[in-house]
Amino acid sequence: MTTPRIRPIAIAVIRHDDKILAARSHDKVKNQTFYRPLGGGVEFGETGRECIIRELKEEIGAEIITLKYIDMIENIFVYNGEPGHELVMVFEGRLTDSRFYASGSVSFSQDEGWDAIEWIDIDNFRSGDKILYPDGLLNLIDIMET
Q1: Cα atoms in the Cβ-side hemisphere of radius 13 Å centred on 92
Q2: Are 8 and 84 in contact (CB under 8 A)?
Q3: Which residue from 18, 45, 92, 129 lies 20 to 30 Å from 36 (Cα-Cα)?
Q4: How do the pLDDT tens digits run along the chain, 146 residues long?
Q5: Which residues contact residue 67 at a Cβ distance below 8 angstroms, ignoring those fewer than 6 apart?
Q6: Residue 64 in contact with residue 56, Cβ under 8 Å?
Q7: Architecture in CATH for domain 7-145
Q8: Beta carbons of 92 and 68 less than 8 angstroms apart
Q9: Which residues contact 2 (CB under 8 A, 6 or more apart)?
Q10: What global pTM score does this model have?
Q11: CA dist 96 to 70, 77, 113, Å?
Q12: Phi and psi for 66 in degrees, rounded to 5?
């Protein structure tokens, strides 16, 4: 078990039509499949914006533009039986390469720990058919649409 700490992360809500780009993962203890927008841990001396630019380059080989800060979500959770605590900086942006918008899924670096990266219809999260983390993000997305 690791020493408990608060982890700063940054994620990017990337939209296409009524869908968002999200990574699929699975909690083995809860036997639950869930999704989270792309992003990752902010390194020392790095801004949230710089983190997203680096993470998207590493994860899917993409460049992102028009990054707009939306809000921060405090995320206290349990994943695979281990407690976690994150401060999640939420940004919205667009990928520079239009090819990413042309398919249902995106190739990614296998060492990221994701099962897949897919375009998921936002209504699947609203209906409860699919789970979106962190908690509260769906409310932010709905506010962003108004």
Answers
A1: 13
A2: no
A3: 45
A4: 567 899 999 999 999 999 999 999 999 999 999 999 999 999 999 999 999 999 999 989 999 999 999 999 999 999 999 999 999 999 999 999 999 998 877 887 666 678 899 999 999 999 999 999 999 999 999 888 76
A5: 12, 49, 52, 53, 91, 92, 93
A6: yes
A7: Alpha-Beta Complex (3.90)
A8: yes
A9: 82
A10: 0.92
A11: 20, 33, 24
A12: 45, 45
Calculate the alpha carbon distances from 63 to 56, 66, 83 in Å. 7, 11, 32
From residue 2, give the alpha-carbon distance in Å to each of 6, 11, 54.
Answer: 12, 23, 25
d(CA 27, CA 44): 28
Q: Which amino acid is at 75?
A: N
Please name the amino acid found at residue 128.
G
